[in-house]
TrEMBL record:
<dbReference type="InterPro" id="IPR051010">
    <property type="entry name" value="BCAA_transport"/>
</dbReference>
<feature type="domain" description="Leucine-binding protein">
    <location>
        <begin position="33"/>
        <end position="380"/>
    </location>
</feature>
<keyword id="KW-0732">Signal</keyword>
<dbReference type="Pfam" id="PF13458">
    <property type="entry name" value="Peripla_BP_6"/>
</dbReference>
<feature type="signal peptide">
    <location>
        <begin position="1"/>
        <end position="30"/>
    </location>
</feature>
<dbReference type="InterPro" id="IPR028081">
    <property type="entry name" value="Leu-bd"/>
</dbReference>
<protein>
    <submittedName>
        <fullName>Branched-chain amino acid transport system substrate-binding protein</fullName>
    </submittedName>
</protein>
<comment type="similarity">
    <text>Belongs to the leucine-binding protein family.</text>
</comment>
<dbReference type="InterPro" id="IPR028082">
    <property type="entry name" value="Peripla_BP_I"/>
</dbReference>
């Protein structure tokens, strides 16, 4: 059970009295920024992914600053290039601690996330007066909020198991799925998808045959034609993949060029180069399981939401507002710091743990037991008849199914050590 918590409203800062809070602080305090170290790839094969995430965080920070900051203090995003390396990420976490930075965020690579959790735990044990919080916006290995859970780690995305539960519940109702091929990156996230999908398929879809499965090196494949050939030879009608970044966009482009006639069920087809690579060839064929997409509830108004998305696109014409969970993360952090009255890691963690927040998709909750965000999920598919397209491709996503919070959750084995 999560403890009762003041609910924070959608775009809460847009109407707050930030100027009053600012005036109540000294000039020195007002000039002292709240810093968040952004640790993700800013070079190498996934540089485009890291750059997109950085732009999301900077945009959200600037909006918060325009509203008066957090307790009158500006927010500063400090980029740190980890080259998609777990060991380099661990070093950057320690560097952030040495610089007196209170918060670190990362999302690309669950192996990296695991290294960050271990480093943050070690730092907080050894340096009780210089603790850090890790705010995870995209690394989804379930172990991070189960056997490897930490009081100092909060995940704002849904984990792999939650997404697969929702996806297989949808797939089991379709009569056009008979043969599935599993293609994933060779690291913890890909391994988890392969293993868990096989278990869920046996349980929910006994008449569906898994005709092939393959893991490939992450960020190293430049030619996906051999993989596409194997999918074709298997006779699959559907492909399930957790690939992201160039590993998904290159796969999608090769499938299109080869005329591969299958449906793709993905985690990350909505951005980071994939819509631009696939274009109209993905209409009614490329689906994704996410906590949000740009056309969620657009028919219901949400003028403030449109203003946010449109302002981001005006500032960054070549990318879209893709990580709406960055909005949730930043404004929940703002609420937690304001409730705690400081950036002290232990006090902010206590405020975040169990917090409810009114997001664009409804109420989301940071589960107290394991610090996993619980939120509605959406299965959507590429379509050219939508309000917002993706990556200026002329194709966006429309909702196929909304999965409510109670059906988009999982149990946890977390036994958290609390201060």
């Amino acid at each position: 059970m999560t403890k009762p918590r003041r609910t924070t409203g959608l775009f809460a800062g847009l109407a707050t009295a930030g100027a009053i809070a600012l005036a109540s602080l000294s000039t020195a305090q007002a000039e002292d920024p709240i810093r968040i170290a952004y640790i993700d790839p800013l070079s190498g094969p996934f540089a485009n992914v890291g750059d997109a995430g950085l732009k999301h965080f900077r945009f959200a920070a600037d909006r918060i600053n325009d509203e008066g900051g957090i307790n009158g203090r500006p927010v500063e995003i400090v980029p740190m290039d980890n080259n998609q390396s777990a060991s380099e990420s661990a070093q950057l976490v320690q560097r952030a601690a040495d610089r007196g930075i209170d918060f670190v965020t990362q999302g690309n690579g669950s192996d990296v996330a695991g290294a960050i959790i271990e480093t943050v735990n070690r730092n907080n044990r050894r340096n009780p007066d210089n603790k850090l919080l890790y705010l995870n916006y995209a690394a989804v290995d379930p172990s991070l909020t189960n056997e490897r859970c930490s009081y100092w780690h909060f995940r704002f995305d849904a984990d792999t198991t939650i997404k697969l539960e929702a996806l297989t519940n949808y797939m089991m109702e379709r009569d056009d799925i008979e043969k599935v091929y599993l293609l994933n990156q060779d690291y913890s996230h890909g391994h988890q998808i392969e293993r868990r999908f096989e278990e869920l398929a046996a349980e929910k879809m006994p008449n569906v045959e898994i005709v092939g499965k393959q893991l490939h090196p992450i960020g190293q494949v430049r030619d996906f034609s051999p993989y596409v050939s194997r999918i074709r030879q298997s006779g699959a009608d559907s492909v399930v993949t957790g690939n992201w970044g160039n590993d998904l966009s290159l796969l999608a482009r090769e499938a299109e060029d080869a005329g591969l006639d299958v449906n793709f069920y993905t985690y990350y087809a909505g951005g980071l180069g994939v819509p631009a690579a696939v274009g109209r060839a993905g209409i009614d064929r490329v689906a994704q399981i996410t906590e949000w997409h740009a056309n969620v509830n657009v028919d219901e108004g949400h003028d403030e939401y449109r203003e946010w998305v449109d302002a981001f696109k005006e500032r960054y014409p070549d990318i879209d507002w893709y990580y709406h969970r960055v909005y949730n993360l930043m404004y929940m952090l703002k609420a937690a710091v304001e409730e705690a009255g400081s950036t002290d890691a232990e006090a902010v963690a206590a405020a975040l743990s169990g917090m409810e927040f009114e997001s664009h998709t409804g109420t989301v909750t940071m589960r107290e037991d394991d610090h996993q965000m619980l939120q509605p999920m959406y299965i959507s598919i590429m379509d050219d008849d939508v309000e917002y397209d993706a990556e200026n491709s002329g194709v966006g996503f429309r909702t196929l199914s909304r999965i409510e919070v109670e059906d988009a959750t999982s149990t946890t084995s977390c036994e958290m050590n609390r201060p």
